[in-house]
Amino acid sequence: MLGTVYALPHPLGAITESGSGYGATWTNSGFCYDFAIAGLPFLRAESAQRPYERALAQSTKDQFDSSSDPGEQTLSEFWVRSQRDFSGGAGIKFLEPAGDERVMRSFRESSMVDVWTPGELTLLHSLEEIADFPSGSWIKLAAAATTTGEPRLLIAAEASPDYMHIWDGTTDLGAVVDPGADPNPGVGRYLCSLGDSVLSSQVRGLPGDQYVTVTRTDITTADRTVIYEQAGTEACRLWWVKQRAVAALGTSLYELGLVPGSGALPTAFYVHPIANWSWVGVAEAPGAILAAGYAGAKGAIYKFVLDEAGDLPTLTGAITVAEFPVGEYPTGLATYLGKYVVIGTNKGVRVGQMSDAGEIQYGPLSWSGDGPVEHFTFRDSYVYCGVTAGVNGNSGLVRIDLGDMDETGRCPWANDLEAAGETGVVDDVSTLGATDRLCIGIRGVGMWAENEDTYAEAGWLTTGFVRFNTTEPKLFHSVRVGSPEGSITVSTVNRHEVASSIATVGGNIAAGQDLRIRHPAGPEEFLGFRFDLASTADDSHASTPLLDTWQVKAVPAVERQELLRIPLLCFDYEQDRYGIREGGSGSALARYQALVAAVSEGTPVTLQDLTTDEQLEVKVDGLEFAQTAPPNAAEGFGGIIYLTARSL
């Protein structure tokens, strides 16, 4: 109990800023206070029953796991992110938000890996050059089959006058035989498969006496038959739709029959009014034919409705069903299963859907790149798009999943087969007959084909950056890889795209272990991962590694706050540790009320330990006043203040 004290004429000390509150401090002068908060001085009041306490704040918070992946939030003190499905395709930067199902099965980039089966990341098959051609020569492909069903591919190239060869998947069956003794029989500048035969368009003859010719090649016998021929120097493009061949020559569209020796091309069923219009694609739609083209920076798709009068329905006039923003125009067109329409443009690939009336509704670019996309082939629910120098800088294929369109009309995509080191124009893509074997014609290089017996020697995938939905720094602790088969090298990828190898899973390091992350050594806002898969020469690359899941663990690396709980004396009359007395009637209540006013709005204030000269910026979380007995002589106001604060 404090003894009797006498009021001083003024306090022995000074507040260094006007009033109390944020930034205000206290300087002792004569009377030695122990603490000051917001410029208001107090004596300490700790005892065995009311200790002065300091501790670091908890850096993680208790969490309730409502995610679709049990344990992502609550299994340990670590923050955890995992992934076991990559079928959402490429193109994301961050693997978040975790609640977005599509994002959580997406990734950033890949090369020569198959991402489309959940829980199975594997290598793609290898890609081999089957035939090479002189620089600058174009290559066209058409899938067909013999009358007994053997798969064939017709390959036409500008390499020599007679290079129109049939390939059966392993052997070049030789040149197609041309009837007559034409000194320049011409090769197929454009090809169109009819199933067991192929239509081709070429320019025959010598300069000054040239003819544009449409011929039909029997895949079984290799014989060519002239269907149409007329004077000209430009081959016409060909498509087979609705039981008829459609040809485009200049601005005109023609409907062709298949009767040998039909003479010159028939009268065009449509001529575009713009003189420099180019037709780039014709495809089937329910009850109609679609034709795409452009002039300059403007393009459109037209619909020609089938008139059912007669044995073979005829075509009505053109109806515009799609237009494009100025600067983007169609460069290729294909439809699939009577439902999907795939539009190649000078900026990428758009995917749409067709109505029963042949109307189309298409979405934004599913894949975007720097060059035009002209050629497509389909397999299962996927469309394979020929891309020039756009698959990690190589020419090859981009695969788009038509069966996973989002609400905006965008479909997931991923890099597929790529011809390493080749950047030539992709002139055509096809399958070998009715098989799933993919083939690519690269201008000035050759024809490349998928080898279904061997896998690529190497491939890789980089994940989206993991940042746990916050920009606060984290210490990335470890990564775990589920790899039931083969060899997989795991690397971190930092914000500067620099990869640092952690370990190779397989061999001495078993899958499922936590691999410590040593680089970066310090905290990072976000971090990505790269997985390199490699087949081995031991089995002639006949098997592939398999990655089924990965998981990263991290802890927050934010500067931890310090929690303080300080008991303080607050009486009218007080005595410091040197026996000096100070006070006055009403001074305790005035200090308490001033302290409440200073901290009630939650603004930061200055906390001083005047015995150690320590000064902290704090936020006051709690303020309690306790009076267990009347002050000395049963008069005045007084008790113990319990101050709870956290450093900032």
Give the tally of β-strands.
Answer: 51
**Physical arrangement of strands within the biggest beta sheet:** 3-4-46-51-50-49
Based on Cα principal axes, name the global outline: elongated
Q: What ranges have pLDDT less than 50 throughout 5 or more consecutive residues?
A: 1-12
Structural class: mainly beta
Largest sheet: 6 strands, antiparallel, barrel
Average pLDDT number: 89
Our measurement of the CA-to-CA distance between the termini, rounded to an integer number of angstroms, reads 36 Å
User: How much of the sequence is in beta strands?
Assistant: over 45%
The count of helical stretches stands at: 1
Rg, please?
39 Å
Helix content, binned percent: under 10%
What features would you describe in this structure?
- With 648 residues, the chain is an all-beta fold.
- The chain is built from 1 helix and 51 strands.
- 2% of the residues lie in helices and 50% in strands.
- The protein has a 6-stranded antiparallel barrel. Strands 7-38-43-40-41 form a 5-stranded antiparallel beta sheet, with no helix packed on it.
- The radius of gyration is 39 Å and the shape is elongated.
- Among the domains are: 13-57 and 563-647, Elongation Factor Tu (Ef-tu), domain 3, CATH 2.40.30; 79-124 and 460-556, Jelly Rolls (Sandwich); 261-423, no CATH class.
